[in-house]
Design brief:
alpha/beta, 4 helices
Length: about 110
């Protein structure tokens, strides 16, 4: 199958964990993927992930974490994540990670 070379058309961005939770609660359509920065103000990415995973409508969403510090990776692996990417990263690296996670999710759910 052909691999996508660009990100999905609809991308939502949130600057804080609280804003991301608000988007999840108010958006009518389910999300295919979340790319999550570990370091966010007020609520870090791991706290967001714990809250998100408790929600039945969001628990299945694949998550890729982004971090500038490799020392976050062991903690990230304690959560159900689909991948991790070290910052800085290229757009193509992110696209590849998203595509791989979506293919894996599709294979897992079929």
């Amino acid at each position: 199958s052909a691999r996508a070379s660009k990100l999905p058309q609809r991308v939502f961005e949130a600057g804080t964990g609280e804003a991301a939770l608000d988007i999840l609660e108010t958006h009518p359509d389910p999300f295919d993927m979340i790319v999550l920065d570990v370091r966010m103000p007020y609520m870090d990415g791991f706290e967001f992930l714990k809250i998100m995973r408790r929600r039945p409508d969001c628990a299945h969403i694949p998550v890729i974490i982004a971090t500038a510090h490799g020392d976050h990776i062991p903690e990230a692996l304690e959560h159900e994540i689909s991948g991790q990417v070290l910052k800085p990263f290229t757009r193509q690296k992110l696209v590849d990670m998203v595509n791989n996670a979506l293919v894996a999710q599709s294979a897992h759910s079929s």
